[in-house]
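This protein record is not my work; I was only asked to verify it. Would you go through it and say whether the fold makes sense for this chain? Here is the record exactly as it was handed to me.
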Amino acid sequence: MAASGLPRAAAAASTSVKPIFSRDMNEAKRRVRELYRAWYREIPTTVNLFQLDISVKQGRDKVREMFMKNAHVTDPRVVDLLVIKGKMELEETINVWKQRTHIMRFFHETEAPRPKDFLSKFYVGHDP
């Protein structure tokens, strides 16, 4: 019984999967560029609206860093999923559904991790 279903499963796995939005990687890249431009244009408004303690350049650098973190992705379906998530984040930011702390959380990821052992803590605390 189980062996008869094996050829069907193999045939289903070999067929191409339906794309989410993009038909190919070029279209997915176009969507990523559109999202990047939208974020790039929104940063000055966000910095002013939320009264963030960062400059516009730091905000744009962080957006670039977040996009470059996923630059290795080559599957158009995964790219589409990331674009959808990015659009949701952008919409939440534009509509002020986020609070200041939600936005500043992105900037704490780039800080150096705090030392764990005694000597490292000592050296960091007493470094001239």
